Amino acid sequence: MRHVWLSSSLLAALAVTTASIGEWRTQSTGVTGRLRGVSAVSSRVAWASGANGTILRTIDAGTTWKALPVPGAETLDFRDVDAMSESVAYALSIGPGESSRIYKTTDGGARWTLQLANTDPRVFLDAMTFRDASHGLAFGDSVDGAFVLFTTANGGKTWERMPADRLPPALPNEGAFAASGTNVAMHGRDHVWIGTSASRVLRSGDGGRTWTVATTPLASGPSAGIFSIAFRDARHGVVVGGDYKKESEAVDNVAVTSDGGATWTLVKDHGLSGFRSVVAWVPGNARSLLAIGPSGADLSSDEGHTWSPVEAGGFDTFAFAPGGGVGWAAGQGGRVARLRLGEAP
């Protein structure tokens, strides 16, 4: 969203070991720009992205990170990266007009193809997600009361803008917070959810052909709303957020659903301990979730109904590797840390 540039904060120590979630180890990336995109492919392969045209990749579990520059994109802010392997990845940059772009590589970042070269000065992309290497969607702030949604076409080679009449009308200035690349989620072939800055959830159960919208009880405002959405299956999901200008406050910033996002229940007691920009389901434990923000982290072991603070440091984004028992967090100052899960929470 145009007005969102997360504030600096005092951050907790990076390298900590916790009994409740696992072991965190900091890693050297060689960059200093803020990282707000991360994608964990496996226990050894991960990608990260951020300010100053930064795109990074590790193929050795983070022992080394390699910069993969995109020609002509040195000033862009890559807020989201989605990787399918050590070779295939998409990167989304934000900003007004031509600054909002999507690139793709199929050779590990040696070459990048500009797939979505936005020329509409009113379009501002926020995040994207993918079902597989050929099918994905990207979401942006609304324009003239209409949501902006792009979907892949031609086997993932091009992007097409979805007609506005297929989407519910947007509220005034409704869009999304480009904070962690996780306000869009997919499950299976047909289910899609998008969390907005107005604390609403757009949802589709037919692959994006038709859409409905649901209101959540999360607080909303110029700097508050949904920042991240995650679903374990087609029915059980969670949204987190808060006010990014008040990182230590926890006011109506987490809600859960068990009916696919049609209705949402606010977690009032034993909720998150502060603003959180990303939430993820813990692999290997169907009931557990980890939420992270610049001021700290929280863990739930009951599908998001109650939360407890955990020592994890402060980050902007996080992703678990599918089935790998590890995950990566990224944040301010080019900081990256790898989490190795301990006993199941």
Shape: globular
H/E element order: EEEEEEEEEEEEEEEEEEEEEEEEEEEEE
State the helix count: 0
Q: What percent of residues are in strands?
A: 35-45%
End-to-end CA span = 34 Å
CATH homology superfamily:
YVTN repeat-like/Quinoprotein amine dehydrogenase
- CATH class, named Mainly Beta
Mean pLDDT: 92
* Largest sheet entry: 5 strands, antiparallel
- Which regions contain 5 or more consecutive residues with pLDDT less than 50? 2-19
How is this structure best described in words?
The protein is mostly beta strands and 345 residues long. The protein has one domain: YVTN repeat-like/Quinoprotein amine dehydrogenase (Methylamine Dehydrogenase, Chain H), CATH 2.130.10.10. Helices cover 0% and strands 43% of the residues. The strands form 7 sheets. Strands 1-2-29-28-27 form a 5-stranded antiparallel beta sheet, with no helix packed on it. β7 and β8 form a beta hairpin. The radius of gyration is 18 Å and the shape is globular. The N terminus is likely disordered.
Describe this structure in a few short sentences.
It contains no helices and 29 strands.
Descriptors for this entry?
disordered N terminus
In terms of topology, how is this protein built?
Blueprint: E1 17-18, E2 22-27, E3 35-40, E4 46-50, E5 54-58, E6 66-67, E7 77-83, E8 89-94, E9 101-105, E10 113-117, E11 125-132, E12 135-143, E13 146-153, E14 158-161, E15 184-187, E16 191-195, E17 200-204, E18 212-215, E19 224-231, E20 237-243, E21 254-257, E22 265-266, E23 278-281, E24 289-293, E25 296-300, E26 308-310, E27 317-320, E28 326-330, E29 336-341
Antiparallel strand pairs: 1-2, 2-29, 3-4, 4-5, 5-6, 7-8, 8-9, 9-10, 11-12, 12-13, 13-14, 15-16, 16-17, 17-18, 19-20, 20-21, 21-22, 23-24, 24-25, 25-26, 27-28, 28-29
